[in-house]
Amino acid sequence: MLCRLSSDSGAALIALCILAGAARAQAPAAPATPQAPDWAQPGSATHTQVAPPADFHRPSTNFSAPIGIFEGQSDVGSAVAPGSASYDAAAGAYTIRSAGYNIWYTRDEFRFLWKKMRGDVSLAGDIAFPDANGYGDRKAVLVIRQSLDDDAKEAVVALHGAGMIHLAERREPDTRMTDMEYRIGGRGLSGGATPDSLVTVHAQRIGIEKKGDAISLWVSLAGEPMHQFGSPITLHFDAPFYVGIGFVSHLPATVDTAVISNLVLANDAGQVR
In 3-state terms, the chain is what percent helix, strand and coil (to 5)? Predict the structure, then answer.
């Protein structure tokens, strides 16, 4: 702060300058940007991600504005960097941007586009990750959740950035998830160093079906008709429940992007295609 003194007002101006300086010194500092805790950092050669502390939860941030076929969207678990989403009606594509440490353990952090539903459900979509260099465990997900709480009971079909597919479940709130994982590869495919190299096959399309309490994973690897992978799980949801799509970067404070397109959402089983 610069004070200019004149010969006829020096004393008064000095007093004003002192008061203004004191007020500025006492003004509260801007709130600090939330920092991701150490347990939320992704696994690396020098760090192992672990489960959140038993008493750690963060309220979700919910938005009721519709987007495409969905009634609303949420930052489930409110990651320290807010997410966002947009819909291109001409392309039939949802672009989802989200940070978040994971969808796993006893709580989740991810951007979720949702619709309240009852009864049987078929949901499927094509998956793309625009940034080829994103974290390998990032997940584009198709989800059935009992609530929007960060620790909700849920069933999740996911395609990971590195190609793994899984069908996961949290059987009760605030309990650790379990899953069945599939890693698919082939030899003699493009991208291998030699014809004998094992090359990861990334699924083009994934789906989830709820038929009663049976929930199953569906996959199309390269444009063939969708087909069921593995055995279904059995998980009961009370109506209404939340059905939708989402994404997590698996980096607690870094936003990444997934695009989910060519979506099928039906209030019936047997419609995954």
Answer: 5, 45, 50
From residue 104, give the alpha-carbon distance in Å to each of 93, 101, 178, 201. 26, 9, 8, 23
Q: Taking a C-beta distance cutoff of 8 angstroms, is the pair 91, 81 a contact?
A: no
Distance of CA 124 to the CA centre of its chain: 17
Calculate Rg over the CA atoms of the chain.
24
Cα gap 64→43, rounded to integer Å: 34
Total-model pTM: 0.87
Domains of the chain, start order: 62-175+199-273 (2.60.120.200)
Residues 155, 123: Cα–Cα separation, whole Å: 12
Residue closest to 42 by CA, chosen among 256, 185, 236, 266: 256
Q: Residue-wise over 14-42: b if at least 16 C-beta within 10 A, else e? A: eeeeeeeeeeeeeeeeeeeeeebeebbbb
Token match 């049976």: residue? 214
143-181 pLDDT, tens digit per residue, is 999 999 999 999 999 999 999 999 999 999 999 999 999
Q: Return the biggest CA–CA distance within the chain.
A: 91
What tokens were used for 161? Answer: 């950035």
Confidence of residue 65 (pLDDT cuts 50, 70, 90): confident
